[in-house]
Specification:
Number of domains: 2
InterPro entries: Lipoprotein_repeat
Structural class: alpha+beta
Helix content: 10-25%
Distance between the termini: 27 Å
Order of helices and strands: HHEEEEEEHEEEEE
Number of strands: 11
Protein name: Lipoprotein with Yx(FWY)xxD motif
Radius of gyration: 17 Å
Keywords: Signal
Number of helices: 3
């Protein structure tokens, strides 16, 4: 179960509890649910670090600095790059990978494939071959590829910017 679903369940159960003085505070609920996914915070001078990893399930994929698989949404535009995942309902499940000032470090990737696109909130999202890239909240550990094929539109991204395949 995703952390978002756990948080929603805890929140719903808290609303059904007896007297309000016994209800958990919002901070306690958030702590119990663990961190909720959202866009990666970006500080001035931050550099998005990408690397090529080998996934037993789907072959070579691009991963972030924490070795989590990156994904693209087949419904996003690539020319020009544009994300369709901009509402909280989407970004809480598929947090965009951000890069301050377009700073991207990516050994093993063709630099010509790398870029950024400005999101509606003004933040810069990393693109690979024009595809805005995201993490998936249900990937519980580095190397997971649980998001590959979700809704027939989310796919792990290969180092050449295409859908990862074996």
């Amino acid at each position: 179960m995703s952390r978002f679903a756990v948080f929603a369940l805890i929140l719903a159960l808290g609303a059904c509890s007896s007297p309000p003085e016994e209800a958990a505070s919002l901070e306690e609920l958030e702590a119990a649910a663990g961190p909720v996914a959202g866009p990666t915070p970006v500080l001035p001078g931050d550099i998005a670090k990408l690397q090529v990893e080998q996934s037993p399930a789907v072959g070579p994929v691009v991963a972030d600095r924490q070795h989590y698989t990156l994904y693209f949404n087949a419904q996003d535009s690539t020319n020009p790059p544009k994300s369709t995942c901009v509402e909280p309902e989407c970004t809480l499940v598929w947090p965009p990978l951000l890069a301050a000032g377009g700073n991207i470090e990516a050994p093993g990737l063709d630099k010509a494939l790398l870029g950024t696109v400005k999101r509606p909130d003004g933040l810069e999202q990393v693109t690979i071959a024009g595809h805005p890239v995201y993490r998936y909240v249900d990937d519980e550990k580095a190397g997971d590829t649980v998001g590959h094929g979700v809704d027939d539109r989310w796919y792990a991204i290969a180092p050449n910017g295409a859908k990862a395949t074996r």
